[in-house]
Amino acid sequence: MTNINYFQLLQLALPEVIVVATALIVMAIDLMVLRKRTIRVRFAAASSLACIGCASAILRIVLAPGQANILDGTLIANPLTHLVQIALLALTICTLLISVDSTFTEHVGEFVLLIMVATAGMMFLVGSQDLLVIFISLELLSLSLYILAAFNKRSAQSWEAALKYFLFGGMSAAFLLFGFSLLYGLSNSTSLPRIAAGIHGPALDPLLVIAIVTTAIGLGFKVAATPFHFWAPDVYQEAPAPSAAFIASGSKVASFFIFFQVAALGFAGAEGTATLPHLVRGWVPVLAFMAAFSMLLGNLVAIRQSSLRRLLAYSAIAHAGYMLLAIVAHTPQSLAALLYYVVTYALATLGAFAVITVVEEQRGSDEFSKFDGLSRQAPVLSFCFAIFILSLAGIPPLAGFFGKFYLFVAVLASTSRYADLIWLVVLAIAMSAVSLYYYLRVLKRVYVTPLAPGASEIKSPVLSQILALALAAAVILLGCAPQLLLRWILAAIGVSGL
Amino acid sequence: MLAWTIYISFLGAAAMLVLPRGSAASARILALLTASAGFAIALVAFGHHRPGETLTIISAPWIPSLGIQYHLAADGISLTLILLTGIIAVTGILFSWNIEERTKEFFALYLLLIGAVYGVFLSYDLFLLFVFYEIVIIPKYFLIAIWGSTRREYGAMKLAIYSFVGSAMVLVGIIAAYVVAGSRTTTLDELARFPFSQHFQMLAFPLVFVGFAILAGLWPFHTWAPTGHVAAPTAASMLLAGVVMKLGAYGCLRIAMVLFPLGMGPWGHHVLGFGSWRDVFTLLAVIGIVYGAMVALVQKDFKFVIGYSSVSHMGFILLGLMTLNQIGIAGAVMQMFSHGILAGLLFAVVGRMVYARTHTRDFAALGPMNLNKALPFAAVIFVLAGMAGMGLPGFSGFVAELMILIGVWHAYPLLAAWVGIGIVVGVVYIWRAMQKAFFAEAGTESRSPHELLPPITLPERIGAIILLSVSVLVGVYPQVLLNIVIPALNSPLFEGLRKGSWQ
What we know:
The complex is a heterodimer of chains A (about 500) and B (about 500). Chain A is about 75% helix and about 0% strand. Chain A is an all-alpha fold and about 500 residues long. Chain A is globular. Chain B is mainly α and about 500 residues long. Chain B has one domain (about 5-500). Chain B has 22 helices and 4 strands. Chain B is globular and about 65 Å long. Chains A and B meet through helix 18, helix 19 and helix 21 of A and helix 5, helix 6 and helix 7 of B.
């Protein structure tokens, strides 16, 4: 048994410690000092405190980027995990800013606390290659998200969605744990690289096949891939807007990253191939079909939606399909493509939610008809909204386009023969052509449809405008100069390996 | 300097957004100035161009880790089309002087579209070209959906979906070519030098060619064109028929044929009488010519006539490309220019001069209005433009179609007869439209609603005269373009095409 240096452990986990400590401070201040103030003041105070906490965690990571691998991958710090953690913290800051104008709850301190705890969970999640820590952090994240989804006590639908989320999530966690236990049984280790060494063999063990499938179910649920997506539309629609934005952005980034790690590191040697029609058993064909079904279902069902949040939910399922392709490819390049894609996707989704929040607060719902003629009333927000939606649709020169391009290049380049995975790329590109239809329908409401007579004025809050503009600027900038982000990702992957 | 055609258009579009609310006049003038500046730059570059030279404007690393370059360059073919874009941009603004609703947004989208079109013609990097190519789709959609007429939301969405499906096919081909060539570069000439296997080219060529040809109105993927043209406001139909369809034809030539020349070679066996993709596309182009003309012949809506005539004329371009000989391809480039000018003019007459005044495009309703008396200028312009479109000597259309016909005669003598039929029908439908819209005899004596029609304005006159004189200039002295187009076809870029399947 190796000696554990607890001081080093603490030092390494300092960013997470900062986040958790901030969460407790926010809660304490909110409950003790600000209890009698208006919700607006409380939200502003709590959010800004929490933002400061996140920012100092980022600072800590940037200023003291240690490299370590403690206890065989239990806690890992390298440039790659740092990069992902910084992205997660930045997304959390944006989520907190979206929530500033919220009025859906009086439990401000608890709300912010849960967001921060979930963030800490995500940070531990990406900084580990050990099944136990992965599972515990995943549960920390999930449990926080269940409560966040149910946070609007006044809305029965919010409860319903959260309950659905919780029941599905509990099931999938059970599957995941079952898979993990089989993996441990097969390899006598909980560390991903050792598992890969342990399961290596000429033929696939039937137990391993079960482990692969159950693990894929558990993680597929987290990323809302078909057929484990049923929670997504309800949660996206009924959860309070900041919670939904958080589930759609930060949690996606962390889940995809860990999905990639588990598949590429933990199941190395059991890949199989997804070349049609000569499939070879392994985890690659499982994920390839999951990706294909997600792209098909997400895009086709999105066409029929009439509420914006539901549409974003189905488009999220479709995007999960695209991103799964990067895991199917499992090369360093595809990891870079995945990170670029998921981060820019999260930015655009957050931005879209920021605009939806404003419209919802003032017009009462997120039905398409509430967006009629928005560009005449809120030109700045509409412009930003168009940028986010077009980026999701993959129109250049926005970040979503380069993400798709790079992802597809990485997938094709991952095998020696370009034709191996081309069916997936062709499907993905065809489906993204379909997606333009429903994205344009939304923009048609905003820009083309005339303002309904007697429509109420929409006031664009300054903070929302600034946030939306900043996110839109980031989406445009990362699209026009992808090198800005790509350089860091590639360098980090180069140093840290997969 | 030529790169400023792109930047100045985008800057103009951005400047529109910061103009004060409700100042339509300043928006118009700003748009006109921006477009004129772009045109002036194009004209200067055209004057300085040395035949056969490929002028590199800028070449800088853009995304170094993928070998993507920000590479703009111009040869004779792109310059011809840049010039066309400049002319159409300026006249399009002259013909949208009457836009009163959301003027700023209209011209912002308009300039965005123009800038992206310049970008496509100047790009020498596959990735960059694709970026500009896709930017075009969005402003096009909004121009039609917001300011359009008949079934505008349907027409706009159809157009956007067709374009996007086309560009999705192109994207698959581009990514595959990039990966197969070793993921090192997306520069056009380096990729063109890469020896793709014949098998790969046979698959990639039809994919990329059809992807681009959808936007060029290749039969049977043309159905977006008539509905889109009809739904679009005048300036947008001018841009759509004048330059956007040319983007597709340009992509066919510049990307599909240059990168995958072996894809046009014989398959080695015959399927339904076709021996190669070239045979297939040639036949589709000829069907497009004849079909477009025939359908134009029976339309009741004035604008649909012009819409289908575009399909017919674009068929000539694709046919010229598929002849694979110098005169045919040069003729195709000439036709791109000529059709851009003439389609712009015809749409201007129908959409702006007639429809904006009479609010109908139905021949049955237009006939009794006695338009040749009410709008003599429009009638004269339409007659002249119609003559040019029929391909009468002295106008640009004649030179272009003649060159294409000669090319076809060399390559597919039997098909030349069918093309002849298409040309004859072309005369008939123009004649019929002219007769029904301007010179119908019915109802002349009783009512005279034409007296209420506002007269043709100065911007319209200037625009029409510019377009008409360009067509006459090129018709009388085609060397002005041929001098730079033909040397460009002999440049190293087209070497694979010349060696591969050139005849």
